[in-house]
Write a structure and sequence with these properties.
It is built from eight helices and four strands; from the N terminus they run αββαββαααααα. The protein is of the alpha+beta class. The chain has a two-stranded antiparallel ribbon. The chain starts with 8 loop residues before the first helix and ends with a helix.
């Protein structure tokens, strides 16, 4: 192939337009991760070798993580500065809300928003039900999987260093 071939101005513009369409299509495809069934991962809750229930989780955006944190942070007014500052984060509730948010809509409705389970277990919301139903280690494993599919998986070099 001869690399010394010069492109006309019109050919250059056409090539740029073609690449822009490819880039746009790629960006739109990348942004659809929340609704893409192929991005969802199955979670099975097993105890004593028996499958109790299963559901699917999806990757979370930075904004979704931030909303979960904000919803579970109490603030107090700093008297010197006159501004609100974070006082404490309810970590257990935050972890449950992350799992709740990452659960695909169909499974969230069927499992975590199950009114019969709420009444039977005396809870008021899906994250409350997660607190009651899942053991701490199960929550931990699910959160690790959510972080992994959300792009936080460490590289081999980072794992070896630690």
């Amino acid at each position: 192939m001869n690399e010394n071939i010069t492109m006309t101005e019109e050919t250059k513009k056409e090539e740029i337009r073609k690449n822009e369409n490819d880039i746009l299509a790629s960006l739109i495809e990348a942004a659809s991760y929340k609704e893409d069934d192929e991005e969802a991962v199955g979670i099975q809750i097993k105890r004593k070798g028996k499958l109790i229930f299963e559901f699917k989780i999806r990757p979370l955006s930075d904004e979704e993580y931030q909303n979960c944190k904000k919803n579970n942070t109490t603030y107090k007014r700093n008297k010197q500065l006159g501004t609100k500052v974070a006082d404490r984060v309810d970590v257990a509730r935050y972890r449950s809300e992350v799992i709740y948010t990452a659960t695909i809509e169909k499974d969230r409705t069927k499992i975590w928003d199950n009114n019969a389970a709420w009444k039977k277990l005396a809870v008021l919301s899906g994250p409350d039900l997660i607190d009651v139903v899942l053991m701490a280690g199960e929550k931990d494993a699910i959160l690790d999987k959510i972080e992994e599919i959300s792009g936080f998986k460490p590289t081999v070099e980072e794992t070896v260093k630690n």
